[in-house]
Amino acid sequence: MTANNPSRTALSEVELVATAWNDFPGTERTPTATEVRIETERARFPTFQTQQIRSFATGTHGKWDDRGFLTPAPVTTTTPHLYPVVWPRFYCEDQKLEMMVRVAMFWWDGDEVRADGWRFETGDPYDSRKVTYRGHYRPHVQRVQRWWRTGPAGFTADLYEAGRRAPDAVPDPEPDAAPVVSPFSEVRPAIPLPSSSLAGLLLCAAIAVHGARAAQEIMEVAGAKFESEFRKMAFP
Fold it and tell me: What is the largest CA-CA distance in the chain?
């Protein structure tokens, strides 16, 4: 995808979905005291600047970049209740435009806040002349335990204090390289996703978090242009 009108269109579509998801009201209810603590944690993440993501279509950046975090409505149909924080990131270089969407789900566990995470990504570049050990050529989702590959584990907002951010454009280690210390693999399994656009990838994440029927409300607010792709991802 070239960094011109097609990229600008794709990023504008991401903006529509991101805005609709971030504004999704969920189920209105009065949070408990412990849930207020989780909301306080979520409020510390820099707010997603939707109008600024179009700037990624204006040139070559050659690195992963972002414009803040989404904090959609909590998922209150489960026990415990889940509080998502969503981090869309973008990579633009020459004719390549990629996106990853990191999702952390916070919940209250006894007397502390815990979180799990997943990374939704566009596919790796495909070259029929060589075989890569990852082979993630289609959009996919993987489990993660940290906001960036080389940073400390965890998803708390204090990882974003000045000077603590680590570069994200670090390749996964080759099979014969020293392994990354982790209680689980962030490379396998990589579950293929049926999305066919950047906005579709973000909708996939919304479906995974809220379920198909709730995510349909997000899609309808974002616009009818997403309905065909959404139904292929969300319904039989």
Answer: 57
103 vs 119: CA distance, rounded Å: 6
Range with the poorest average pLDDT among 42-51, 59-68, 86-95: 59-68
Give 175-192 pLDDT, tens digit per residue.
Answer: 445 455 555 666 778 889
Written as six digits, the tokens of 71 are: 């904090």
How far apart, in Å, are the Cα atoms of 73 and each of 62, 70, 169, 187? 33, 10, 30, 29
Q: Which two tokens stand for residue 140?
A: 């996919």
DSSP 191: E
Q: 88 by DSSP, 3-state: which? A: strand
Residue 230, token pair as written in the block: 């959404």
What residue ranges do the domains of the chain occupy? Answer: 5-161+180-234
* pTM of the complete model: 0.84
**CA distances in angstroms from 183 to 144, 217, 236, listed in the order given:** 10, 36, 35
Half-sphere exposure of 171 (CA within 13 A, CB side): 9
Burial 163-183 (b: 16+ CB within 10 A, else e): eeeeebeeeeeeeeeeeeeee
